[in-house]
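S1.2 Input.
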Amino acid sequence: MSLAESPASSPTSGKTPSESSTSEGAAPPVHLPANHLMETVLPVRPALIDRGSAVRVNPGMLAELVSSGSAQAVVLSGRQALISDSSLVLLNAAELAGHLANTPYAPEHVIYLGSALAGSDLDAGTELVLFVLPLQFEVRAEEFEAHVAGIPSDAQWAGFRDVAARLNATDTALFIEASAIANWHATHTHCPRCGTPTQPEAGGWVRRCPADNSEHFPRTDPAIIVTVVGPDGRLLLGGGGPLDARNYSTLAGFVEPGESLEQAVQREIGEEVGVRVTASQYLGSQSWPFPASLMLGFTATTPDTEARPDGVEVTRARWFSRSELQEAVLSGEIVISSRLSIARSLIEHWYGGVIQDAADSA
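S1.3 Output.
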């Protein structure tokens, strides 16, 4: 029986990984060929959109694409997108631009998102742009309908968290990309050197200062997110907010300037729950552009068995064996991260299989 089939046992010895390592000692060193690459621990989702970094720098490229009538537009306002029937609404960019021109809803930004790759849910080569509108409105309100035709009658504004579980992989990738670049434009409007308003270039992926000619690029803030495993194989999860809250998840924090990722793991875990990290291993990553994070997943070991929440970021911390965690989730005693998040992937990597939610057995 595999570890995924039996979370409490090892495929080779019938023991948990922690029991095997503590009772039998450390494994002998493995000698590998030079530059040997190990397989990725967490699954890598293939890219579905070619972001066209080489073509988007051409002057006039975006305007020509929109006016060509061949591009499809994603519509974003604030942190919400137009959704219809559990899908992103894609509209003809040229028609949408014409309908929005000279109205209060004219886009603040038009940004090149890229073209669909083979394997996406769109026809390969479909060109995609983003219209960032200045304000939200009722989609079916008379004022909106008077200016914009072709909006599905059931369209509505929705945030990513509201609809992520229902979106296909391509819509998910587009929503995340669109949110990330739109958030950057919203928060980086002026030159950090001289304060002059900057101007978008390169299809919306660069902002240039007209005063000093400096270029400014979208930023991503690296953050580590960690499963901490104790000497007895139990998993440490934490949560913020009220002491009686039921939500528990992995521990996380931003990487500070000058830090390595491993140093950030040690520091953040020590600061948040007072636990020493003796070893850590990178497992995978997930973009989380709300507003602009890249989550870098680790698992770490500690010799400690007691956790001391800092009372600020983490108010509750609790150790779980595999059986305790599954029972607590099924009973509704606690709620862990959704299956859309890297936090859930990290927890289930430690668990050795899928953790059943209370809703699964309802």
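S1.4 Remarks. The longest helix spans residues 169-187.
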